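Course assignment 3, question 2. Fill in each field.
Student: A.L.
Task: Predict the tertiary structure for the chain below.
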Amino acid sequence: MPTDSATDLENLRDLQRGEAAALDRLVNRWQRPLLAFAYRYVQNSADAQDLVAETFVRLYQRRMGLRPDTNLPAWLFTALSNLCHNLHRWKRRHPTVSLGAPQAGGEAPLDPESAEDSPGAAMIRDEAVSALREAVDALPHDLKVTVLLHHYEHLPYRQIGEVVGCSERGVETRLYRARQLLRTELARFVGEAAPR
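Answer field:
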């Protein structure tokens, strides 16, 4: 993940002065980590790309209202997490099934360990990954965003706190609560993985 805040602030100032190339630089710099976050949240590549594009559209539309010292990564992730949350809620209220879509467990796992597992081990791993994906997806929005930003985007607590609107201690508490919920939800897989 990009960490040079001086470059972000310089690009934001250039964007506010009307330099069109500044938006391109910001897109090149932030598109990949934003896409990774959005995909993990909505679990759909096309939706993730649309949400990231909408985030950059909003950045451009609101560029003049941003303060010169805006924490751009926090602003981008906050805007994107809100868009992801809105889409996720909408899809829960309006479920659809694509005839060509793979069934549960048919998509590639988020973090595959090895493609050369035995069929039994691969099936257990795929079930566990699918259960993990569903468990993370079922977390409340504030916990889900915190987990995704911490475990996948590797943001420090301070930046996560700016995105989710709480202190660093609050981030620790949210991660603890999320882990407790995930541990409860995934107990059967943890038990299977533990040596007997």
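Instructor remarks: The radius of gyration is 19 Å. Residues 100-115 have pLDDT under 50 and may be disordered.
Grade: pending
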